[in-house]
Design brief:
Layout lengths: L4 H16 L3 E7 L9 E7 L2 H16 L7 E3 L6 E5 L3 E7 H7 L1 H4 L18 H4 L1
Parallel strand pairs: 2-5
Antiparallel strand pairs: 1-2, 3-4, 4-5
Length: 130
């Protein structure tokens, strides 16, 4: 069993909304064979608490356009790691520091990656790298 087409569609919409708010390191993993309570974990990073909230708002608004509401929302008060549970997908919006510490993609690295259809991030120019 793999992630349902509906879950993949929702993950792609959520990822695009997160990217529009400049979330970084956006990845999705098909966890359907591993945990059985959801199909996809979508994980993205934000630079600060305010951006975490902006990404969460954008994801909720985008999925609301197709009449999909979260079943549960956690962590919104702190704004460091917000979890949006949509049943078929679980969206993790993490402050960069939480992302570095908990390393969710590393924990689920054995799960297949989902192609989110996002454009490639531009490479840093030599001036930005220095």
């Amino acid at each position: 069993m793999t992630a349902a087409p509906r879950a993949i569609e929702w993950a792609r919409l959520a990822a695009a909304a997160a990217a529009d708010k400049l979330a970084t390191d956006i990845v999705a993993m098909d966890v359907s064979q591993t945990i059985g309570i959801t199909d996809i974990f979508l994980v993205c990073s934000a630079a600060n608490d305010r951006q975490v909230r902006a990404v969460v708002d954008a994801v909720e608004a985008k999925l609301d356009e197709i009449d999909v509401d979260p079943l549960r929302r956690e962590g919104e008060q702190e704004g460091r790691w917000v979890l949006l549970d949509y049943g078929d997908i679980v969206v993790h919006v993490q402050h960069v520091e939480e992302r570095d510490y908990y390393q969710l993609p590393r924990l689920w690295r054995d799960c297949p990656a989902i192609d989110l259809g996002l454009p490639e991030a531009p490479a840093a120019s030599p001036a930005q790298s220095a």
